[in-house]
Amino acid sequence: MSEKKQDIENLGRRHFLRNSAVTGVAGAGLAGGFGAGALLNSRQARAAGEGAEAVAPGELDDYYGFWSGGHQGEVRVLGVPSMRELMRIPVFNVDSATGHGITNESRRVLGDSARFLNGDAHHPHISMTDGRYDGKYLFINDKANTRVARIRLDIMKTDKITSVPNVQAIHGLRLQKVPHTKYVFANAELPIPQINDGRDLENPDDYYTMFNAIDAESMEVAWQVIVDGNLDNTDADYTGRFVASTCYNSEKGMTLSDTMRAERDWVVVFDVEAIEAAVAAGDYRTLGDAEVPVLDGRKGSQLTRYIPVPKNPHGLNTSPDGQYFIANGKLSPTVSIIAIDRLPQLFDDAIAPRDAVVGEPELGLGPLHTTFDGRGNAYTTLFIDSQVAKWNIADAIRAYQGEQVNYIRQKLDVHYQPGHNHASLTESRDADGQWLVVLSKFSKDRFLPVGPLHPENDQLIDISGEEMKLVHDGPTYAEPHDCILLRADQLNPSRTWTRDDPYFAETRAMAEADGVTLETDNTVVRDGNQVRVYMTSIAPQYGLTEFKVKQGDEVTVVITNLDQVEDLTHGFCMVNHGVSMEISPQQTASVTFTADKPGVHWYYCNWFCHAMHMEMTGRMLVEKA
Length: 625
Prior knowledge:
Layout: H1 3-10, H2 13-18, H3 42-48, E1 63-68, E2 74-80, E3 84-90, H4 104-110, E4 125-129, E5 132-142, E6 147-152, E7 157-163, E8 168-175, E9 183-190, E10 192-193, E11 207-215, E12 221-227, E13 234-236, E14 242-247, E15 264-271, H5 272-280, E16 294-296, E17 304-310, E18 316-318, E19 324-328, E20 335-339, H6 343-347, E21 357-359, E22 367-372, E23 377-382, E24 387-392, H7 393-400, E25 408-413, E26 418-423, E27 435-440, E28 456-462, E29 469-476, E30 483-487, H8 505-513, E31 523-527, E32 530-538, E33 541-542, E34 546-550, E35 553-561, E36 570-574, E37 579-583, E38 588-595, E39 599-604, E40 617-623
Parallel strand pairs: 12-16, 32-35, 34-40
Antiparallel strand pairs: 1-2, 1-30, 2-3, 4-5, 5-6, 6-7, 8-9, 9-11, 10-11, 11-12, 13-14, 14-15, 15-17, 18-19, 19-20, 20-21, 22-23, 23-24, 24-25, 26-27, 27-28, 28-29, 31-32, 32-33, 35-38, 36-37, 36-39, 39-40
């Protein structure tokens, strides 16, 4: 080991960071990769994994984990504690395996936003009843194109996508917890002119953003609330009345330096009951072509309260006992503990905004997100320190009141620069304190090199005992931003489709209008230059092994999989036409394309289904126009 490297390893993390040139806001802790985790040698790192709980071949995991697929715009399903990837659910992306973004059914879900080829999926959250996961829906946002999607967890398919008007960049997303998930709460992060049609381009004073509530069943935007500053992360309480959001840009700055002028920013708290009453009373306006009720929640409004907290806060998390909102400091080494039972007094103006803060423990450099074990302890990621801090909430409150008490229970090195973390069942009443997932933004030296673009690192930590134990590293791709864990018994996915599923209801209605019975008919319906080809599939054969069209025809192929055996999926791929799709047992799927080139064009099953799978083919014969 070189003398220089040995000297670096002998430095404490804080001493090194505070005395290096990389401690500026934009580069702190990144340039050299010298979080304390980087000091572990490979033998120590391997030893850390020896306590991993093995899930043997053929055994099932205890938990489902749903990971945001980041820049891929998808959701990934993992088993925990094995950390095996079980499935990928396409949401805002085009997926040639399943045909999402290609099939007619998925393009109807995408709607007008099908024109976007990218997504930036951040925060997956599962619907609740009485503060407990009900396994019905998972919701996730697209920051890149200002959308919110819903996934049906029975079929693991995206069934609704909503584009949110009047705002840009949906970031923070959480759900109403009680009495059930009536609303999906979604923060628009970046202020824009109101209305954003070319006016006020050079006048940031007239830029605003909004807090948005989306009806979880209809997926229509129910109402929007204009706020001061910007909005970052959000969470809801266990009464159904309050939702809180962090603001890191109270200055409404247009540049990095502008966003850091104020010594404090704030948490804005929304009174959902007051907002609903204002909407019912007609105390709102609409903007532009959107018919969504827009309410004024800027300072002085009866709909909101602004609680000052240290500058540039980021994460906002609700403790599972329903007592506290935790706002994470980012540029402050602290987190702010807000007592939810004091919020009614705050809205009655009986206390000052800072009186709602009952604790502000100092945890380390760069606190971003906090999760909980259900035993009174909180776990906060420290981005710059590359650590997770375990701390006790009650002790932190006692320390804030002046007692001499050590509220920090442990700090664990993670690798490297952690963002979100998530403990099992932590966003529900049932937080069980078994597992903690830390999603690290950098992996540096943890895996075999794969070129300049490194994988990121999801780490699994055992929190069932008094000490946190790192048990697993998992390389992952394209900035998986956040995750959520629920017990396996809280989810009941379908094994095969039901024939009356609403996902393909419009395709079924089209067949009925054509006089076609999807389960039995193999036929071609011609309507001018529109041709609809209906066929069944049962391993290893399509119901039609050839059909004939004319050059320039718009062809819609509709396939119904008659197999009833689970896991017997068929596919349809038309060669040289950019067409492929999945048809799982008892599913109907359809795709539309133009037969623009005369000749013979083969189609084949692209999901292995049978010993004679390679022979499951057919021909499209295209006559010259």
